[in-house]
Amino acid sequence: MAVQGLTTSFSVYDLFGTQPMSTSTNDVLAKAYQANAEKQITKQQKLIANQSQVKIDAAKREMARWTPLTDGINSAQDNLNSAVSKAQSLDQTLFNMIDTLNTPTNISGDWSSQAARFDGLLSAITSMTGDDDPTNLLGSRQRGNTYQPNEVSYQASPNPQDQVTVYGSYAGSDTKITMADGTFWMPLGSQGIQNYTLYPVAPIGYPQSTGSGATTLDTPFNESSITFTTGQTVQNPQTYTGSVQRAGLGVMQSWLYDGLATPDGRARALQDIQNARTKLESITSSLTASQGLVAGDLAKVQQNIDDQAKLMTQLSTDANKEVQTYVTKVQAQVQQQLNAAVNVGATPVVQMIHVGGRVGRLFDLLT
User: Fold this and answer.
1) Which helix (H) or strand (E) covers residue 231, if one does?
2) Which of 23-37, 211-225, 252-266, 274-288 shows the lowest mean pLDDT across its residues?
3) What is the pTM assigned to this prediction?
């Protein structure tokens, strides 16, 4: 931002509204005063402009330190807003899962369709908290391992050490059943499980269906040890024993709740869903608190940017006012000189114009 609109010239005729003297010799005198005044004003204008521009350039540099920070903070804010919105959707999904526990599919007591709906809703939770987006603050890129939540960082000030990290919370709902040999089973899709030696790069065999009784829980549920059988609807069922580890919200596929076909299975499912909603409420509160902190950091950065913009505008305005004040001062001095010239008479004054050395005293407007 350069200093704009500085006055560089004026006419002595503008001082009075009419010509102060009517003779041609006095016109010459007026023009001489005007030329000298313009020279002094131009010199002072350049001085004021240069001084102001130094300060404006400093403000520009300061603004340039803060402006790039808004992108990172806005990005973090967007990630948080998305996470809060997803958390609300997750809670609604959990609420819908409760509905599947209320009524069997038909009067014969078949719960298979409700179990399929239950698992479909659980799969939707997995989709909203998937491991493919590192900025999803409800997700984790460590599925099957530590389930460490995703996080995002931004710079809160030009100080390199002033970096803020926003930590997410894993709000998926995953299950890992570990065998004695170290292999493990994990959900695959809405109604499937897959055995692994290393997730996701080392699967063992083919995925196994869990729908319509294809996989069954053979013992009362106990996280420290369960026995289950896969392939119940094919010719070669296999039975396994392992321990259950839950991650995130802790709701499991329906086959681990007896396919929802037993009162005990449905009661356990309901309790897990209620616990999940409580966890989700806590997660949402934490995200909302982070929203406030990030909004505060953004406001601080934006305030610094706005302050520098206002400062540049004020510096330019002040410089123009200073020049105008100087012009007014010069105008008054010229008027005094012209009045003095009129009082002593035009002819002697004109004669002084032609006497090189002496005339300078009349035109020396700055003392």
Assistant:
1) none
2) 23-37
3) 0.79
Read off the amino acid at residue 171: A
Decide: 62 and 149 in contact? Cβ < 8 Å. no
Tokens read off for 12 = 């002595």
Question: Do residues 73 and 294 make contact, with C-beta atoms less than 8 angstroms apart?
Answer: yes
> What is the sign, positive or negative, of the torsion defined by CA atoms of 288, 289, 292, 296?
negative
Which H helix or E strand runs over 167?
strand 163-167
Whether 227 and 219 have beta carbons less than 8 Å apart is answered as yes
Q: 106, 107, 115, 92: which is closest to 257 by C-alpha? A: 115
List, in order, residues 6 or more apart from 145 with CB less than 8 Å away: 199
Picking from 283, 297, 252, the residue whose alpha carbon sits closest to that of residue 270 is: 252
- CA–CA separation, 366 vs 327, rounded Å? 12
* Residue corresponding to tokens 């819908």: 96
Cα gap 102→91, rounded to integer Å: 18
